[in-house]
Amino acid sequence: MTQLSQTRDAVLTITADVKAHAPQVLAELRANGPVQRVRLSSGIEAWAVLSYEEARAALTHPALLRDPTPSEKALTDAGYTAHRVGVGIGGSMLQEDPPNHTRLRRLVAPAFSARRTKLLARRVHEITDGLIDAMAGHDEVDLVQAFTAPLPITVISELLGVPEGERDQFRDWTAAFLATPSDAQRAAGAALNAFMSALVDRKQAEPTDDLLSDLTAQSNAEDGRLSREELVATGSLLVIAGHETTVNLLGNALVALFRHPDQADVLRSRPELLEGAVEEFLRLDSSVEMATPRFAAADLTLGGVEIRRGDVVAVYLAAANRDLGDPFELDVTRPHARHIAFGHGIHHCLGAPLARMEATIALGALLNRFPELRPALPLEEVRWIPSGMMRGPLELRARLR
Hints:
Layout: H1 16-20, H2 22-30, E1 35-39, E2 45-49, H3 52-59, E3 64-65, H4 72-78, H5 100-108, H6 114-135, E4 140-142, H7 143-148, H8 150-160, H9 170-177, H10 183-205, H11 211-220, H12 228-259, H13 261-269, H14 274-284, E5 294-296, E6 300-302, E7 305-307, E8 312-315, H15 317-321, H16 352-369, E9 374-375, E10 397-399
Parallel strand pairs: 2-8
Antiparallel strand pairs: 1-2, 3-5, 4-10, 5-8, 6-7, 9-10
């Protein structure tokens, strides 16, 4: 595998096996150059950006946009439809460039401010304690099912105003939607959109004190600041991004602590390190392995590679983060761990403060309540998300005592 950056032939297909060993595989690929040709699990061929500096440059490059027009044929051939308005999260801020992105983000941003996040902390503590109490009667649990999934789903559902008892399918829908383009993926996106559309109708008729009611009021405004399609797409995006990233942040952090039990002991004895440790977990194993694709609106050069108009560019946040220091070392005492796990530039994750807060509270409570917490199966047997842009364990069997 030499001179890979000088050919347009795909040199690596992102399979389930590659994703299971992504940190090692991407590090080997990066050793050949910061930008490499790959075939994504969707079947789309793309330029993979693998180094920290090139990743930051790509995420803010004026010619790398979310507008897929130059790449439409490649996306259509692969069955990729999530970018289209009215499908999945098409029409949400994640799929838009300025000025639409600016307008949509401004409407949602106040709900995820540092001040609002701090006010949510007490409720996150309550949810965390309830989940831990429910686990306490068991010797062994699947931490994903019992803890890392229900906590973020509950938090984002309450923030949006999704009634309890109507959230059960969120995890299945989002997992399918974030996987390889397929009939199942498109069906999951349609199901989530239909649910969100019906919920919007209810918020219009009977608004409550929640984010979706606030956004629905914006949609009803005479100046039309938020169209119906944008409202549904934004709600769907917040369901997906608002919990899936944190589910996997928590799962990846626990795998890392299971691999390095001495670091778990450090956090138990020095809980003041937890906030900084969350940054280290994000650096070591980003829950968003690959940022949503960018599309070249003009020819450009990145990392010594000539990228042509219409080419797809995939920024591998996970690879970029491991481009700093020892890529496989976990050090929860590391000051100010640098990473771009939440992206960079105008699409930097709005929910980053909320995810950080949830992770700090959840990991601290879990480590404190279960001092003998350990994996129930060899970590080599952990099954990882097999396709798509996310990285995280599908299940994580653990002994509590």
